[in-house]
Amino acid sequence: MKLTFEDRIAVVTGAGRGIGKAIAESLAAEGVHVICVSVNPGSCGAAAEDIKSRGGKASALAVDVSDSAAVAEACKRLIDEHGCVDILVNNAGITRDNLLIRMSEEDWQSVIDTNLSSCFFWAKGLVRPMTRKRWGRIINISSVSGIMGNPGQLNYSSAKAGMIAFAKTMAKELASRSITSNVVAPGFIS
Questions:
Q1: Band of the pLDDT at 24, cuts 50, 70, 90?
Q2: How far is 70 from 79, CA to CA, in rounded Å?
Q3: Which positions are annotated as active-site residues?
């Protein structure tokens, strides 16, 4: 049996570079129409153009994933345009490294909002049509830091650990609707 993702729609956050861009390219190579999301219009636009230049289907969407209202509006537009987003890859992430005693509340909150709260915002905005369709895939890109902890990254490690619990809980809530929720925790990359 050959699995096919032809004609599926995917949102990949943090798709402008790194792991997110590689995920977007891999999905597009399997026939998925990929919506490349980044806070930076230039990077998500370039990622979408790279995919299209190779014969894939892609579009760009510049949105601040840490802004709940902006994500809600983006989700509404995507559902209006596509009916259902089949695959959500929560990959967007930032670091604001510092030791606990030197970490500002702003650095704590910006990492939590971008790396963890954004997962909730996107899932909340996109999961209802998946439940009606009775099919969906949600992939959360965490980090080994969320399992092991990492000095100087209290905010990052906490957010990534939260993603693991988020994915596990969502899997239990959505399994009866044929929606999977998984988490990948890569090690350090260059």
A1: very high
A2: 14
A3: 156
Around Cβ 121, how many Cβ atoms within 10 Å? Answer: 24
| Residue 147 phi, psi dihedral angles, 5° rounding | -100, -45
110 contacts: CB under 8 Å, gap ≥ 6: 66, 94, 96
pLDDT in tens, 142-151: 999 999 999 9
With contact defined as beta carbons under 8 Å apart, do 112 and 33 qualify?
A: no
SS3 144: coil
CA dihedral 72, 74, 79, 85 (to 10 degrees): -100
Length of the chain: 190
Domain boundaries of the chain, sorted by first residue = 9-184
pTM exceeding 0.85: yes
Q: Which CATH architecture has domain 9-184?
A: 3-Layer(aba) Sandwich (3.40)
- Per-residue pLDDT of 51-101, as tens digits, reads 999 999 999 999 999 999 999 999 999 999 999 999 999 999 999 999 999
56 vs 25: CA distance, rounded Å: 8
Structure token digits, residue 19: 């792991």
How far apart (Å, rounded) are the C-alpha atoms in residues 61 and 105?
Answer: 29
